[in-house]
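Record now logged for everyone:
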Amino acid sequence: MIRAISILLAFIVLTLMLLPFQLASIVLGLRLQRTLPHWYHRMLCALIGVRIREIGARSADSPALILSNHVSWLDICVISALSPVVFVAKSEVAGWPVFGWLARLQRTIFINRQARHQTGAASREIAGRLLGGDAVVLFAEGTSGDGIRVLPFRSSLVGAVHHALGNSQHRHVTVQPMSLAYRSLGGVPMGRGLRQRVAWYGDAELIPHLLAVLASGAVDVTVSWGQAVACDVSADRKAITRDAEQSVRRMTAAALRGAASAHLAGPVPAGHNAIPPRALHRIDPCSFAISAAPACVSPPSALAATISASAPISKPRAR
């Protein structure tokens, strides 16, 4: 519990330090509003002890819609630590104490999944963010799961692709599947028992779950990027969703088996153009460096060592 309290105190200090800069950047419309949450979550991952192994890479093409499975509240930190993104979340999150406020600061798109008549409006808002240059992450299952099974993906909000293309000069929107697979906790491989310590789903209460994760030690997660596909106006949103779901299922199963050389590419239906994936690399939370490597990094020591590390960020090198 001492570890959890120490992390919470460091989180409060870090948040209060960066808060004025994020608020100012949002009000003034500065690019910093996109990049600051990225660095904030990198530091949070270092604090918590999240060790990220990345297979493949996010496509650099824009507009970009990322379709992912959803396991835990940690997903937000992990994905944001890899790249500047915005998330789509259920409207209830906006009212959560502290967390709803943080989600607003990251410019999260809130939608009411229960009101089907508002799907069109939600898709248009997502399309607006895509056209504005944001990479949008959609947890396509619509809820969180146990981290082993991937639930069926919902296609309704993938219609944002057509809204984006119908209101711009862009000819394609890049859609890329992404898998999150939590593999060990405190250095111990996750079986079904330990997995519940990280996976936040069902009726689990947020605060007790959060404290348990913070007190448990290092968390190892594999993030796998699937085949990026350039979708035009002829692309079928149900086909896009189905192919992304199949890709995420394959990548998640491969990551849980420890198969780093998993076959990431899936079928490319009509109206799509395949974009090849790039390098295999990892994020080192101790130095904030990105490097080509086949193994996870060692756990971070302390926040001071993390922030003061001088190693630069380097581009992943293709093998």
About this structure: The radius of gyration is 19 Å.
